[in-house]
Each structure stands twice: as C-alpha cells, then as structure tokens.
Amino acid sequence: MQKIPLLLLFLGHVWVDASQAILPVALVKLKESFALSYFQVGFIMAVLNLTSSVIQPVFGYISDRFPTGWFVPVGILWTALAMGLLGWAANYPIAVLLVGLAGLGTAIFHPRAMMAVYFVSGNRLGFGAAVFSTGGNLGFALGPVVGSFLILGFGLHATLGLLAPAALLCLIIFFYRGDYLRHEPAVQKESSKDFNRALQNIPWGSLIAVCLIVTLRSWVYISFLTYLPMFFQTQGIQLKTGSLMLTVFLVGGAVAGLYGGHLSDKVGRRRVIAVSMLVYPILASLMILCKGNWIWLLAGASGAALLASFAVTIVVAQELMPQFVGLASGLILGLGFGTGGLGTAFSGFLADTLGLYQVMWILALAPVLGALLAVFIRTARS
Questions:
Q1: Does residue 23 contact residue 130 with C-beta atoms inside 8 Å?
Q2: Residue 106: φ, ψ to 5°
Q3: pLDDT score of 336 more than 60
Q4: SS3 label, residue 263
Q5: Domains detected in the chain
Q6: Alpha-carbon distance 322 to 279, whole Å?
Q7: 321 against 126, higher pLDDT
Q8: Nearest CA to 230 among 85, 92, 26, 86?
Q9: Can you state the percent helix, strand and coil of the chain, rounding each to 5?
Q10: Alpha-carbon separation of residue 263 from 286, 300, 312, 315 (angstroms)
C-alpha cells in the first residue's frame, strides 16, 4: 500500500465533498432569500446529483482507456470554484446552474481518484477504499460546519472561502512525484474482441443489485443531508445546532465507513451491507422520536449504520468489473449515488404534500429493502 498517494487522494475527497456539503446550510438561506418551496430546495440538490450521476460513468470509462490523472486536481478546484460562487447567485436559476457545474466537477474527480485508490491499495483493497470513502464522508461531515462558519458568520458571499484550501491541495498533488495518477489503463491495450469478452463476463445480476442498493441508500442519505436541519428546526432546534447534529450524523458515518471496509475484508461484503441496511431503520426511528440530549448519540449511531457499507459497495462493483475499475467506480459513485439523489426532489414533493415529519419516517424505514437486495450479490468475498 502506497500511503502518501492514498493520503493525498483522501484529502482531495475530503475537500471535494466538503465543498458540496455546504449546500444544506446555504439552502436554508437561499430558501429565505428566494422564497423557495421544499420541492425547489429538493430540486437544486437533485441537480447536483444529476449532473454528477449522468456524466460520472462517462468519465470513468474515459479513465479506463486513456491517461487522465489530471482529472483529480481539476475536479477538486472546479467543484470548490462552482460552490464558492453559489453565495453570489443573483437568483434561483443561477444558483441551479452553479450547483450543476459543481456536480460536473465531482464527476470529473471521483472515478479517476477511486481508480488510483484501486492501484495504490495493493491486497488491502477494502481498507484502501474505506480510507478514500471515509474522506468523502468526513468531507460531508465538515461541510455543514464549514458552511455554518462561512455563511452564518460572514454571509453567503463568504462561500468563496472554499477556494483557498482547494488551490493549495491542487498544488501539492501537482508537485508530488509519484506515478499513482499516471497508471496505464489496462483496457487500453486490449483488442475489441477482448473488450467485448470482458463485458460478457460481468455478473450483471449482482451488479444491478449493488446499483439498486446504492440508489436506495443514496436517496435516504442525501434526503437526510438536505432536510435534517429543516426537520430539526420544526422540532424547535436552532439552525446552528441542527447543522452540528447533521455533522454528528456524518462523522458517525465516516468512522463506520472506515471500519466497514476493513470488516468486509474479513467477514464478507454482503454481510456488512445487509446488517447496515437492517440496523439503520431502528436507530433512525429512535432519532426521530427522541427528545433531549439522546438525539446527539442517535444521530451519530444512525449515520454509522447507514454509511458502514459505503466503501463496501464500491469494492463489490470493482470486484465484479475488474477490467473496468474506472467505470465501476463511476457507476457506484456517480450513477447509483446520483440517481438516488434525484429522489431528493421527490422527498421534497412528499414533504410539501404530506409533511416533513412523515417523510422522515419513510426515509428511516426504506433501507430494509436494501437488505433484501443484498441476497442477490455474489462475489469472491460475498
């Protein structure tokens, strides 16, 4: 395992996802400024995930066939720039456009970065993927804190503060002398016949099951990320405190994601996925019902249960598609994750129709279906 490259990829993932994750805090202020409905709030989050989900597998496929190491630093800077300009949006359409551009930046970064993780992890792929995924989960956990510090402390225009760390990180990645971003794609040298044979050998049933699990989990995850601060406000909790509770939820997920990947190397991928999907509904239900200080503990535990399988699903896809590592990463991090994110707009529609409290219960119980889908996964370490 190459530790320094893995660390740089980890830090890049932290800041790309932290830049995205200021959005829930920004949306509270944008909702007030532009008089947005819950559906419009959900739609802008869905746009972020749509631009990432549709294009990310394409960038993954390109990464499998061509040298594209520069995707990593460009993706980091692009995402921070687009989200940095969000606070300067003059109206709702411009805000939607900037969020869409941020999604494009994440689409550029994720498949190529995850491909690099695959190459630097050696025989500890589960752990390497878990470290990388933990960076993303940690970024999502830091995002509300960074967003609160910038937006609540200095106003919406302070979102430009995202640029400085991104620029510094890009310089470090650019000047580090390593080959982890210049690995020759394996598929590039194969004939069309070999390429088609590799496609035919993919166990599509297992791959579809994994994509459906990720889609379901992502719908729940991103909807919680979007509406949890608003839900806490309806329960009499201030925005700043609600944002910190969201951070606790995400920190719990980041820690569990790291351990979940390591555990899957030992006890099997499918088992970790199934247990994660079964335990989460119990803890999330208790979090919704709870009052007082216990809600902090349940928020962290709920996040841990939901995201314990985050890295595991990426590794499963890579193991099912060993000759298409970039494409597999794009499918899970992009298409599966992003398509699930489109459900955020649907969640907003339901919140406008049924009420936010009822929607939180739907989101709490839905992952049970993911545990059922895990039965169909078949890999060497399932």
A1: no
A2: -70, -35
A3: yes
A4: helix
A5: 3-182+198-376 (1.20.1250.20)
A6: 30
A7: 321
A8: 26
A9: 85, 0, 15
A10: 26, 19, 9, 12
Scanning the structure block, which residue is given the tokens 């039965």? 375
* Residue 307 contacts residue 137 (beta carbons within 8 Å): yes
Q: Which amino acid is at 108?
A: I
Amino acid at 359: V
Structure tokens at 171: 């310089």
What would the DSSP string read from start to end of 225-242?
Answer: HHHHHHHHHHTT--HHHH
Q: Pick from 56, 18, 48, 65: which is nearest to 336 by CA?
A: 56
Q: Which of helix, strand or coil describes residue 1?
A: coil
Assigned token pair, 165: 């760390």
Contact 205, 191 (CB under 8 A): no
> Residue 150 and residue 113: Cα distance in Å, rounded?
28
Q: Are 336 and 211 in contact (CB under 8 A)?
A: yes
pLDDT at 240: 76
* Residue found by looking up tokens 């969640």 in the block: 347
Report which of 306, 314, 286, 108 is spatially closest to residue 219, judged by C-alpha positions: 306
Q: Please answer whether residues 143 and 20 qualify as being in contact, where contact means their C-beta atoms are separated by less than 8 angstroms.
A: yes
Mark residue 341 as left, alpha or beta (left: phi above 0; alpha: psi -120 to 50; beta: remaining).
Answer: alpha
The angle that helices 204-234 and 356-365 make with each other, rounded to 10 degrees, is: 150
Instruction: Quickly count: other Cβ atoms within 10 Å of residue 226's Cβ.
Output: 27
How far are the Cα atoms of 50, 100, 172 from residue 46, in angstroms, in the given order? 6, 9, 32
- Compute φ and ψ for 358, nearest 5 degrees: -65, -40
User: Of 130-134, 258-262, 335-339, which gets the smallest average pLDDT?
Assistant: 335-339
Report how far residue 102's alpha carbon sits from residue 25's, in angstroms, rounded to the nearest whole number: 16
Q: Which residue matches tokens 């956990």?
A: 141
Question: CA 106, CA 109: separation in Å to the nearest integer?
Answer: 5
The answer to whether 278 and 330 are in contact (CB under 8 A) is no
235 vs 263: CA distance, rounded Å: 36
Would you say the pTM of this structure is higher than 0.90? no
